[in-house]
Amino acid sequence: MGNPRVLRHVQRGLSRRSRAAGRASSPLAGSESPHAGEVPDLEAMRRAVQSFLEASGLSLEDPELVDTPARVAEAWARHFLDGYGRNPDAVLAERIPVPESSRGELVVVTGLRFHSMCPHHLLPVEGRAHIAYVPGDWVVGFGRLAALLDTWAHRLILQEQLARGVARSLARALESPGAACILEAHQACLRVRGEEQRDAVTHAEAYEGVLRKDGMLRRELWARITAAGGAW
Hints:
It is a single chain. By secondary structure, this protein is α+β, with helices and mostly antiparallel strands. The chain has eight helices and six strands; from the N terminus they run ααααββββααβαβα. It has helices at residues 4-23, 42-55, 68-80, 88-91, 142-153, 159-173, 188-191, 216-227; strands at 96-97, 107-117, 124-134, 138-139, 178-187, 202-209. The strands form two sheets. Strands 2-3-5-6 form a four-stranded antiparallel beta sheet, with helices on both faces.
């Protein structure tokens, strides 16, 4: 039946995280997070995994599988679906005023690692993100950009939607005149099933505002990405 102490421990941790996310909610409109504040039902998840394993012809009496349903429920709740409990605007709520002399200059962070899950086959996606924005009145700490990436990545989401969610959140929450998110990833659903293209790297780009156009700022962004190592 799994380890009930593990389930209770994870449930309490998720409940605290959910309450903290609610207290940190931003006055900025449009979180794009319809499940924010909801806590996964770990016991129901455990039962579902157990049913899946049994339907696959496996025995839960196998000592290696006894606690697998509880471990899988914990892993999914903590690491793969926890983005639904976070509000992208709240992640960027701690904003810092920009000096007048710095407005319009490009802020870029390259090589941010991320993992996600493909919504079509529930198989993992791993990759790198390059995130940029043009400050208007506000900037945020670089760590907030990594947190924003995880907020979107830790959902069942397509790579294209992930890039779009990050770029739109930056543009909206920071009132930025331009934002971008460029993703390079290894998709397990492409590498280990179907055509089994094990060397394939998938790319997705999303731009907002002034970075939608091929101008000086966009060329500067790609120059920085190339200097940091380019593709995967």
